[in-house]
Write a structure and sequence with these properties.
Four Helix Bundle (Hemerythrin (Met), subunit A), alpha/beta, eight-stranded parallel barrel, TIM Barrel, single chain, disordered C terminus, about 45% helix
């Protein structure tokens, strides 16, 4: 029997964002959150350079692999490889609406073929001993959400799926971009709650539009877990509070400065391996929300940190900028004309 508490708080898989550098930093902020990789196709797992493509460090655990595909045999082969590498869960993507996955007939398209998804789950369950889960929408396009969600859920649970992770929106494959599909289709949290009541024995995780831990606690009165994507990525401070507020355990670090100090040895090691500084620091731009120096921190890393040859010098300088700004503000008498440089920048266009 799978431990439902392990799904209590999850960070969603996000293309181009939840890579190994991101997960390493997130693990510094929270010991208990369940982390997910970006979505990988079976071909990338089977034929790719494994350490470079899907390698990860044990310090990231618990971390799950998300696969995107629709061929049961290939998914089973890929799942076996991932399990042997040490991932603690295989998650099948049945929710991504991008043109790429539509062209490959997987992702959200699979909502229309629950029997095929069941075959994929069954094949992976036969290949591995770790949990196999499904992340889905509540439907696509013209489908009735209740019928579509329950058809998929019933099929995959009968095939052995260990948990259901549900983005509480339909995906409109006709007429909306992938970005619009994250916000435009209306949320239907009640339908996910209904699914949980119908399947009390199956862990159900809710995803979509959840902004903070207060909202998370409300959802946790109805389902086993919550999954946050953009909210967690764009405000890493939220992750620092997860262990204390949702698991009744001490926060692993005190503040963003301590988190950056803990991340620094990893950054140094990756730089030695030839990884560019920006590949790591792009995941830090949401730090110091509402604090003096936050905008200058982002601006510096977004200009100097992306340069060829950027090193720990730029990393340390960015941190020093925030410290100096906070000291300056603390020592400056407050007047109507004195306000901290803390207004957040606009959300990146590439937000998942």
């Amino acid at each position: 029997m799978i431990d439902r508490s392990t799904f209590r708080f999850c960070v969603a898989p996000m293309m181009d964002w939840t890579d190994r550098h991101c997960r390493t930093f997130h693990r510094i902020l929270t010991r208990r959150a369940r982390l997910y990789t970006e979505m990988f196709t079976p071909g990338a797992v089977i034929h790719g350079e494994r350490e470079r493509v899907i390698g990860f460090g044990q310090h990231e655990q618990p971390v799950a692999m998300q696969l995107g595909g629709s061929d049961p045999a290939k998914l089973a082969e890929a799942a076996k490889i991932c399990a042997e590498l040490g991932y603690i869960e295989i998650n099948l993507n049945c929710g991504c609406p991008s043109d790429r996955v539509q062209g490959g007939n997987f992702g959200a398209c699979l909502m229309r073929v629950p029997n095929l998804v069941a075959e994929c789950v069954q094949a992976m369950k036969q290949a591995v001993t770790i949990p196999v889960t499904v992340k889905c929408r509540i439907g696509v396009d013209e489908q009735d959400p209740e019928q579509a969600l329950f058809a998929l859920a019933n099929a995959v649970v009968a095939a052995g799926a260990d948990a259901l992770l549900v983005h509480a929106r339909s995906a409109w494959l006709e007429g909306l971009s992938p970005k619009e599909n994250r916000d435009v289709p209306p949320l239907n949290y009640g339908l996910v709650y209904q699914l949980k009541r119908a399947m009390p024995q199956v862990p159900v995780v809710i995803n979509g539009g959840i902004l903070d831990l207060a909202q998370s606690r409300v959802h946790l009165e109805h389902v086993d877990g919550v999954m946050l994507g953009r909210a967690a990525y764009q405000n890493p401070e939220l992750l620092r509070l997860v262990d204390a507020e949702l698991f009744n355990q001490p926060a692993p670090i005190e503040d963003s400065f301590e988190a950056l100090a803990a991340f620094r040895p990893y950054v140094a090691a990756q730089l030695e391996r030839g990884v560019r500084l920006h590949s790591m620091t792009k995941h830090l731009l949401g730090l110091f929300p509402g604090q003096p120096g936050a905008r200058r921190f982002r601006r510096y890393l977004s200009t100097e940190g992306v340069r060829t040859g950027a090193s720990l010098t730029e990393y340390d300088t960015a941190i020093a900028i925030v410290r100096e700004e906070q000291v300056r503000i603390a020592q400056t008498p407050r007047t109507l004309d004195t306000a901290p440089d803390a207004t957040p920048d606009a959300t990146p266009d590439s937000a998942p």
